[in-house]
Amino acid sequence: MDSTDAPSHGPLSTKTAPSTGAPDLWFELPPGFVQFDLDEDSEVRLLRMADAADSLFTGATPEQKFSLVASGEYILRTLIEVGAEHVSSCLLRSDGGKLSQGTFSVIIERPETGPQSQDRQGSAKRTAVQWRSLYPDAEVGLVMLPYGIAALCVRDQELQIPGVIFGLDEPVSATVRQVQFCVPLQTGPGSALFVFMTEDIDKWPEYLDLLSGIMASVSPDDPGEPDEATNERAEGPGGGRTETHA
Length: 246
Fold this sequence. Notes:
With 246 residues, this protein is an alpha+beta fold. Helices cover 26% and strands 28% of the residues. The strands form two sheets. It has a seven-stranded antiparallel β-sheet with strand order 3-4-5-9-8-7-6, sandwiched between helices. It has a two-stranded antiparallel sheet with strand order 1-2. Strand 8 and strand 9 (191-198) form a beta hairpin. Helix 1 (42-56) crosses helix 2 (62-81). The radius of gyration is 19 Å and the shape is globular. The two termini are 34 Å apart.
């Protein structure tokens, strides 16, 4: 699959350090991912996504493009409602011009009270045990990322998308494959939940390659900070840095 967009950096900032507003962690988005402004008007976003679908998938039917944009907006609104701090969409060209879209999101989960430190390994193990109980058919395990240990869960789920989005009376069923990483924070109690989902299950291996790169980039350090040796900014062309607060 061919990607279309320049890389960008996606930092997350919570209230760990309210005096400085320093982010808990940073990650890098590879080409093909476009970050959403979560405060943007839905109508403006829909029009922009429709234009993107037109330019990327010239061979697709209007119905296919409409389904892509409408279902993507529904998923985005659902993520915003559950408190996502970052959401980005991946639009990629695939062989034969088939529509291919994935959605990536990050949610910070932090307890309001409790100790200021945590057993990160124990936290990840408890999350994995909980996921095995909740999703008996899922693939669940523990992985070691450069940032630290994380719980991993891969599962398929059936979504019921409201039919009104497509001009129908009945809801529309959609099978979505989802992978989620629960990463205990280095900055204190709590975790970052990284989630990627797509209906394009045939292209799952390619999407996993992209997601592996994102998770490998998770770091407590700002990737855009000047290099001490060269005093030059190590930011790719077209890249940008944004910051969100819980």
